Amino acid sequence: MPDCPRCQQLVTADAVKCPHCSLVLRAYGHPGMPLHQAGEGFLCATCTYDADDTCTYPQRPHAKTCMLYHNAAQPLVEEFDAKPLQPKGWAGFRAWCRRHRGWLLLGGILVLSLGVALVR
Ligand code: SF4
Ligand SMILES: [Zn+2]
Fold first, then answer.
1. Tens digit of each residue's pLDDT (9 = 90 or more) over 98-120
2. Can you tell me which atom of ligand 1 is nearest the CA of 50?
3. Any domain includes 94
C-alpha cells in the first residue's frame, strides 16, 4: 500500500482521496488516473519528460501535481522475460516436424536406400 504524500498515512492503491487529510490522489475522481503530488520541491525536477525536454504542460517546470509525471530514475517500460510460447503434445510434435522436415526427409531417403540395398 502506498502512503499519502502529504500526511504519510497508508492509503489503498486505488484511493481517489486520502481518507486522513482529503488530499486528491486521482485525477478527475477516476481510480485509473493517478495524480502525482510533489512532496518537497517540484515534480518536474525528477521527471523523465522534463529531462528529455518533451513536456509541453504549462505548469512545467513548477508542477506540484501532474497526471503524466514519471520518475526519471525508473525505466519507462518495465523489462520482462518474454519467452515464445511452445506448443505442447501433438501440436508440438507437428511443429517440431515442420522445423526439421529437411532432416526428416534426408533420414527417410537414407532408410529407404538401406532397405533397397539389403533386399538385393
Ligand atoms: S509531465 Fe508533469 S511533472 Fe513531468 S515535466 Fe511535465 S509538468 Fe512536470
Ligand atoms: Zn493524507
1. 999 999 999 999 999 999 999 87
2. 5
3. yes
Residue 111 lies inside a defined structural domain of this protein? yes
Model's pTM, two decimal places?
Answer: 0.61
Q: Which domain holds residue 107?
A: 89-119
Nearest CA to ligand 1 atom 8: 44
Query: What single letter denotes the amino acid at residue 92?
Result: G
Which of residues 2 and 42 earns the better pLDDT score? 42
Give the cell for residue 45: 525536477
Q: In whole angstroms, give the CA distance from residue 97 to residue 102.
A: 9
Q: What angle do CA 89, 92, 97 make, to 5 degrees?
A: 130
Say whether the peptide bond before residue 61 is cis (omega within 30 degrees of 0): yes
Residue 99 falls within a domain, yes or no?
Answer: yes
Q: Is 44 strand, coil or helix?
A: helix
Q: Which residues line ligand 1 (CB under 6 A)?
A: 43-44, 47, 49-50, 55, 57, 59-60, 63, 66, 68-69
Domain count along the chain: 1
